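User: My notes are a mess, but here's the protein and flavin mononucleotide's SMILES. Can you give me a structure?
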Amino acid sequence: MTATPWLTYAPSGKAPMRPAGSEPRAAIDLPRPDLRSGASLMTALSFRASTREFLPRPLSLATLGELLWAADGLNRPLSGGRTAPSPHNAQEIDIYAALPQGVYRYDAPTHRLVLKRAVDARGMTGYQDFVGEAPLDLIYVVRGSKLLEMPASQRDTFSAVTAGAIAQNVSLYCASAGLATVVRGWLDHRLLADALSLNEDETPILAQTVGLPVDTGAAQNS
Ligand SMILES: Cc1cc2nc3c(=O)[nH]c(=O)nc-3n(C[C@H](O)[C@H](O)[C@H](O)COP(=O)(O)O)c2cc1C
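Assistant: No problem, the inputs look usable. Here's the predicted complex:
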């Protein structure tokens, strides 16, 4: 594969790290998801599509709670099971949420966001113009220390599959809730790792922008 196809995604040419929009909270408790909300799975599948235009309006806390629970939340508290599969239940992908007020890590067991860095790093999660403007960019980060029991030859493939399952959970939640989203592999991994202050064994592999769609946004998320 060459790098050429990625260039068709129209780079914006900016990668600013901005100061946090407001004083960030150290942790944000997320509302529990309403398991009866949204369109049916089959309807969501019929709406699933990549969208690259977003309203700059923030997502509500309720939406954020549902979105992250759908992504990789705890759905079987007794066993610690999550909404996304992972190899040997390694749960090796951390989800970071780049919000205007800071970068947070989603802690699935407590269903809360934990502040990682008090900066607006949305613009550093990719090259496309909507990246710094949409209200939320998710970053999927492999935590290598959770894969040490696995043969080295399988680690990249398996963690990419886990990230893909999480991304599809998010895409289907978005389709079911009337939100716009696009999965993005075109990242500067080193820049992003620095922006998130990641350790050496933590690697960002995929990002996903989420927001209100420009066409129906006014009626959503109220
Ligand atoms: C692994 C992966 C990486 C992708 N990377 C990008 C990206 O960096 N930027 C982008 O705008 N779209 C990206 N996409 C979205 C694809 O371009 C999109 O899924 C494809 O054009 C099909 O369109 P659809 O999702 O609307 O069916 C990516 C999709 C996948 C699965």
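The radius of gyration is 17 Å.
User: Great, I'll file this with my notes.
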